Amino acid sequence: MSAVPKPGAPQTQPEKRVATPSGIEVPVVVTREMAGDPDPGLPAAYPFTRGIFADGYRGRPWTIRQYSGFGSAEESNQRYRFLLDQGQTGLSVALDLPTQCGYDPDDAMARPEIGKVGVSLFSLSEMETLFEGIDLGAISTSFTINGTAAIIYAMYLAAADKQGVPREKLTGTIQNDILKEYVARGTWIFPVRPSLRLIADSILYSNEVSPRFNAISIAGAHVRDAGCTAVEEMAYTLANGLAYVDELIRRGGDLTKFARRLSFFFYVHMDLFEEASKFRAGRRLWAKLLRERYGVTDDKALHFRFGVVCGGSSLVAAQPYNNIVRVAIENMAAVLGGAQSIFTCAYDEAFQIPTEFSAEIALRTQQIVRHESGIAATVDPLGGSYYVEWLTERMEKTMLEVMGEIDAYGGVVKAIEDGWLQRRIAVRAKQKKDATDRGERIVVGQNQFRREAQADSYGEVFRLDPQISARVLAKHAALKRERDAARVERSLAALEAAAATDTHNLMPLLIECCHAYATVGEMVDRLKRCWGEFQEPVRL
Amino acid sequence: MSSALSPGPLVGKRILVAKPGLDGHDSGAKVIALALRDAGAEVIYTGLRKSPEFIVRVALDEDVSAVGLSILSGSHKELAREVLEGLRAAGVGDIPVFVGGTIPPEDAAGLLAAGVKGVFTNDMPLAQMIDELARAFA
Fold it and tell me: What are the C-alpha distances in Å from A290 to residues A301, A310, A343, A361, A402?
């Protein structure tokens, strides 16, 4: 037991760290005056600092949405049924890199990656298998898909058609945020401008035929994990969001209508109050931007709805069980920030696909936070805290400054095409790594508090079935033999012809390609013929 | 870490930093590239989504002193093997190859046995990585 300080003894040294990870200097104490005598108002009232729903999580608990998927559709279908049986309320589909980058499994670039980081969905046949025994009308499904998002959305609609589920009943999300792919996640295919067209096509189509489905989730998560700060994560994401708004307006979209279906996605890292404040600041900044710059008045259109992921690069391979604690803290930050859906990473996710054991702990973490901690009993429990209101204000201001820098450069599209934004993030990542190496940023178990001769125990090791690649290739070959080749060719030719013009919405054509069992690679190849491929600017 | 005043430990070395396969996580590769440059090396970065054949060709054309592969998709074994085989087939099997990324400890041994000269994970300090490289060139 540590010694209790004697009365009158000098205070212990203040913590060395006096800034948040975003670099905002933190006072030893924040007074009412410093916070500007804050009154954050009520939830569900503009600008929504305290949240978008009057009854918070009481009326609408957050969706527990664990990201999973690996191997072939059969394996993933089994994992989904397991997760649904365990009380998970929404599915989140991880796709393998060939599907994400638009290659068929038999392409030379695809072969080493089949089924590795997600499930292979090369055609509607696989989507049907993936959801066998799962009623698409009864669950909400999120797909982390970008370069081929319009195709996967078309495939999902086709799968619903096959199940006899009306399209308007579908709920879920496709990530469909290509701008950040160019900056951080790397699954781009086409150049920026035709990619924006494809995104607008899918959003406008979805607004009509599947109005409860989120056809875009504008994501800051990946730029964050690539190294930028919490403030930059929000600023870059809102800047991208406005770029999509501009594109949709240019395409004749009804702003009030499509803005209701825009959703967002972020990482939560370890600084509890900065993360919670980030969401409070982002939520009200988005509402203000839409109201002040675009004249939106409809409350639902101003609502900033977002999902989060807890973990990612904040997880550490050294002493991996500590990650369970990290994820629990991040989970709390997400709830305090008012997230609509939460994914908690498994403790072993820093180095492998989670095992059923680690995946279950990640799920139980959310259930403990929800049912035991009391954190969700009242709306925005941090509201009115001098520190949190002060920090929310500071972060909002800094976010606007960062957005101003992008505007000054010429906007996000130019910043991405030139590689300017990519370079900024790489430099940030280097700074973060240097700070870690110097020990200024403490990572428990890694650069501090290591045991002598630490042998990290990882528990059970996940092993992907080595036969998966062969099985996927066999299914792909069988599909190509058995399908109606004439219908495939007709549907692909129609797609290519429409892509060559600027006026067609490509969604109905993609859906027909999916129904014909055309493959993802075939559809992408036709579009590449019209649009070419993105040329990555490499600037260091 | 080298300062602007002292020559870095990797001065005179040309190092290829490559992203084989479809993995799009390039933050690590870029951090490494910047660190190598700080240490005095001349760095050639391929950008994303390059085939092993392409990487071997660049290694030859640019006459590099070492190749670093960054892989976070779990395909490190296949991709590293293909690059090693390609370099050997091109008669430059002596160019040292290093692998970085999400490499489970039990896979690192396999990579080393296959001919990879060093495996770097993200918890390794950059200075230590630079030291290992400098030793490999000594």
Answer: 9, 28, 28, 39, 18
